[in-house]
Amino acid sequence: MSLQTSLRQLLSILLPISITSLTYLYLYPIFCGCNFPPPASSPSSPPAILNTLRQHINIPLDPSHYTQIAPFRLLVLADPQLEGDTSLPNANDSLLNRLTTYREAVVSTDTWTDFLSAIRGSLLDTLLVDIPFAFSGARKRLDLFGNDFYLAHIYRSLHWWTKPTHVTVLGDLMGSQWVTDGEFEWRAWRFWNRVFGAGVRVDDEITVTGGEGVHGRDVKVEEVLLDSGSVRANSAVEAWKNRIINVAGNHDVGYAGDISEARMERFDRVFGRANWDIRFRYPAARDNLTTSPHGAGTITTTTSAAPTSPTDELSPSPSSTTTPSIHLVVLNSLILDTPALSPSIQSHTYDFLNDVIQQRSQPVEDRSSFTLLLTHLPLHKHQGVCFDGPFFSFYDNDDEKPPEGQGPRFKAGGLREQNHLSPHASQMGILQGLFGLSGDSNAPAKGKGRNGLVLTGHDHVGCDVLHFVNRSVTQDGAEGVLSPGWSWEAKRYPRHKSHSLPSLEEEEDDTPSIREVTLRSMMGEFGGNAGFLSLWFDSDPSVEEWRYEISTCRLGVQHIWWTIHVVGAVTAILVIISGVLSVWGWLVSSSPGGAVTESTAKGWKSGGAGLKKTSRGLLYRIITEWRHVGSRKNGRKKERTGKGGKAREEKE
């Protein structure tokens, strides 16, 4: 069997596999059902893929085959954790440096015995230790390079197919908070140029509410969620599609016990402020939910004098009670618990949170407002509810070896690590503070709080939880008399529950509650996950509040990405080799001078020696042809000589 025949048989297997797998990989959002849930979805609703397809292909469809597109569609990613040089072997331990060390050890020997011993030891170390170590380092470098493009493939494919209006990454953009400034800049470059190549940082003009000196001032940033048709509004639509809403994670800035001004400064400068909020207004919702399927308009920043009374702080403007809106809050929850290394950073974060609650949040009775919290640390929950249970650790000693020219990076007793927020920070700061939930039935809105959702990262496994008020708890009252009380509880979110079509039991349930979705990591080890949050306003007069649905999908572990590309590369190389052999054979068989010689044919058909024998056959043919040409020339010369002699004889 010839080499070309073998290649053709091999390609008949590899080529379909490669084409099929590459098609699946680059269109995986379609095959895996990665779509934003449509508004008012139900088991009888048309598949969500039809809504997504309508954004790519303008084809007329029966309205019964699709529903309207949600005006706010958030692509949610979590914990990419870009690693870097700190995960690679030390440069001093490179193979070249180790060989140099061995050479010096051999040269410095004084006796023949020491020389042989040094040679033997160097060879053994090189073969058994250094070469495997060098291969491991090279594999890690290749792994880091490929991991960037694996993550980029997730973002690029999902962004292209699902067409989100907004994108967020829920923290842990980096793999370590302890990296140097140079390493931080290098990983940041990879983040913006490889992983999120088309993404841009959210401008400081938009995140002004999280800036220094804003506390106590009525500073608000608002945008129109619907496209008004103007050129400026259309440009804002495109701008938000590419902005990446980055949340600070513990691997970016650290935990409270080691968060410093320097770390916060470099994160804010490169990825955007860690604390800020914005309100997206939805003016057309009151008239018609189907006015426009797209989002965003112009930015409006208002600044006025500080309120003169608590009543002014909490009283909304007339338009705020009639115009539905989404209040997006980005919060650095890593600094909420104590002890903190930097009291000033902690104070600034609490000031920001209080401003959001007192000045920029709507009353809890206003169901036309939806509060969406993006933060890194999950809220407190009991052991067993999620994969990670409550955990706190603290530094035992002060930093004994701080970097030159810098102060201690941590101090004894400082908060070193945590899995969740503390119960106090979760309940008083988030549940009761930001969302206004309460177990007191006499509280505003009967304690049901603001309509909203919490999105978190950190727990790489992911979790879906419902935080609720447990009113069945009893407490000891005065003189030992039992009086009804309440406490905060958390449980897994019921899979059957839907915020688009609530059941009768859910409508009658007045238990204050809020959902928290901890998104599974997008790292290859955890399957390359992503979330899709759809938000829309139900303008039914009997409802008039925001609804949401969230779904997830995954690409698969990074080995799938690697395998498909390796198989594709091998297939491409074999196709090229097969093509070269075909051209080579055609050139040989069609060369001038007659048919292919026997040796050439044997060299071509031998198969075992392949190109080598074919080349020998071709060379033999060239030499033979050259000899034939020489023989023909000599024959013609002799013929001319013979004719000349014969002519002379006749003349004589």
TrEMBL record:
Residues annotated as transmembrane: 560-587
Instruction: Specify the domain of life of the species encoding this protein.
Output: Eukaryota
- List keywords of the entry alphabetically: Membrane, Transmembrane, Transmembrane helix
Bias category Low complexity: which stretches?
290-322
Organism encoding this protein? Paracoccidioides brasiliensis
InterPro entries linked to this entry:
Metallo-depent_PP-like, PGAP5/Cdc1/Ted1
What ranges does the record list as Basic residues composition bias? 630-645
Quote a single Gene Ontology cellular component term. membrane
- What protein name is recorded for this chain? Calcineurin-like phosphoesterase domain-containing protein
Q: Where do the record's region annotations for Disordered lie?
A: 289-322, 630-652
Please verify whether the record's keywords include Membrane. Answer: yes
Give an example GO biological process: GPI anchor biosynthetic process
On whether Protein biosynthesis is a keyword of this UniProt record, the answer is: no
